[in-house]
Amino acid sequence: MASSALHTRLHLRDLDQSKKPIVLAMPFSVPGAPGGKDLKCGAAVFDQPALPLIREPRPRIRELHDAVRINLLPGARAEFSAYSWFLQECGRLNALAAGKLVHAHIRSMRLEHDRFLGNLVVDMYGRCGRLDEAAAAFQEIHEKNVFSWNIWIGANAMNGQSMAALELLKKMELHGIKATRVTFLNALSACAAPELLAQARSIVEKITAAGMDRDVLVATAVVSAYARCGAMASAREVFDAMPARNIVSWNAMIEAYAQHGRGADAIAVFRLLELEGTFQANKITFLALIEACSCSWQGNLGTGRLFHHRAIASGFHTDESLKNSLVNMYSKCGSVEEARQVFDSIAPRTAISCSVMITTLAQNGFYREALELYREMQEEGLESNNMTFLSLLEASAHLTALGQGRRIHASIIDYGLARDLLIQTALVYMYGKCASLDEAREVFESMERKNVVAWTSIIAAYSQHGHCEESLELFRRMALDGVMPNEVTYGTLLSTCSHAGLVDEAYDNFVEMKNPRLTHYRCMVDALGRAGKLDEAEDLLNNMPFEPDSVAWVLFLGACKTHGSIERGSRAAESIREVAPESAMLCTSSCRGMILTLAEVDTRDA
Q: d(Cα 285, Cα 20) in Å, to the nearest integer?
């Protein structure tokens, strides 16, 4: 390579001689150095924590692929700066095919053991989600340095391989390589679940020993790691102890509270930020605050509107991600009209914005509108994703629109999502609701891994359509497969036993439950009542660990009417009047009807 630094723009060969040369920006310069030596990039390519991928339009990826093919000619060794730039662009754009071409060219030049290029190859494969290829490239690197380990740890963390990333940190230490700030940042990003809290604390101890605990970037990463591990008290303790904070630190704490459903605490931290007056809220701040307003079951509509107006005043009114977040917030707060107004202001519509709006409509019971928006989305040529299809299947199920559900299933197959566990479970539910048990069973049996939700869906499908024996047989299969039933499964099972007259089996399953809820007590009262065991049903009602509601008493009243027990029916009616006075007229009518019916029977017998 030439010893002088390369220019920050690289002119590549023409893709087509009739067109102007393609000029691709190189955001760094590379001092010349022999292939065996490290090259220092002005962009500090190896001294950065793992970042999320940036998805670019396919034409941009095709352009990059063509540029690689034309500029890296067989048998001609390129400059290291060209390899470096191409590999970084392939990783940034998730252009795996182009990245493989670059890697193949590096191999053909026998440069695969070079540490500088090897580090870039590992980074490229990591960003493309191909850890097997990244691992192979990592093993080929001779004389790995801290940059090599940082990149490999970051690649594993970025792709959800938390334990592997943390194990790599230990191996790195065993190799005598001292951790840098980036090492700790990547390792902390791998601590993303409560079961990894001990590892997070261990890393924090190492950070303190290395004297980096007062570094604002590292301390902020610790706050986020503790929050992801569910240790909110520890996260707040670290945040409060920071000698200096930046807006990223404040956002991390606000986001942590919002993501844990503690909206009031998130907003309180924002108030402290305003009181301090050092930093202005940015887009990330408003995204977190809007999420905070969606935390509770009914949301916080008034505060959400306030932050909506603040975001507009701050100049973020055109940002699509913020608008999508607002659509979701208004949906959670029950204001579908305002959610639709925000959605309609997005121009042009994108696949993500349409998916968010379809989900909003489906979750709020606007099933036909959700399907209509999907039709518009198809006409505009926008692609769907998992969330879109899940919402559409829910809409089809509630409308019992079997034909529509089948068409959506066909689209799912076209998108290559037919093996997605959530999609398969939703298909079972949809076909079951539409009474197409054969199709529901076909999807269910094709599932490689069946979780409790899938089992519950197929059990409920058969139960709802009167196939109680088949439903119970599936429950037994579920037990043999080692899948533990949840509350919904038990509720479905108890209801099935009740309608099948299997009161003993219902009781056996009821006593197996650790903490039965009111809905399970209702099912058991119904089962006992249907079987004519009114004394036991009334005794269960009077000895519940919580107050029976009107639904439980109405079920018992219906059983009393069926079996002609006027005295018990009167007591049930009186209990209903106490817990639900608005039902008094209904209870009186039911009791009167029961008495008249019994009088007619007595007269006929006489």
A: 43
Q: Are the C-beta atoms of 563 and 532 separated by less than 8 Å? A: yes
pLDDT digits (tens, 9 = 90+) for 231-242: 999 999 999 999
The letter for the amino acid at 86 is F
DSSP 457-526: HHHHHHHHTT-HHHHHHHHHHHHHTTPPP-HHHHHHHHHHHHHHT-HHHHHHHHHH-SS--HHHHHHHHH
Does residue 52 have a cis bond before it (omega within 30 degrees)? no
**What span, in angstroms and rounded, lies between the C-alpha atoms of 482 and 476?**
10
Question: How far apart, in Å, are the Cα atoms of 579 and each of 464, 552, 553?
Answer: 29, 11, 9
The three-state secondary structure class of 547 is: coil
Contact 354, 377 (CB under 8 A): yes
What are the residues whose beta carbons fall under 8 Å from the beta carbon of 533, sequence distance 6 or more?
503
Give CA separation, 189 vs 29, 150, 162, 279, in Å. 29, 12, 8, 25
Return the domain boundaries, the chain: 1-143
pLDDT at 52: 46
What pTM does this model have? 0.71
474: its two tokens: 């599936």
pLDDT greater than 50 at residue 225? yes
Instruction: Give the residue from 480, 426, 423 showing the smallest Cα distance to 456.
Output: 426
Of residues 199 and 13, the one with the higher pLDDT is 199
Q: Which residues contact 74 (CB under 8 A, 6 or more apart)?
A: 105, 108
- Position 251 confidence tier, pLDDT thresholds 50, 70, 90: very high
Q: What are the structure tokens assigned to 329, written together? A: 């917030």
Q: Do 196 and 166 contact (CB within 8 A), yes or no?
A: yes
pLDDT, averaged across the chain: 85
Residue 512: Cβ-neighbour burial (10 angstroms; 0-12, 13-18, 19+) = exposed
> Token match 């691709």: residue?
24
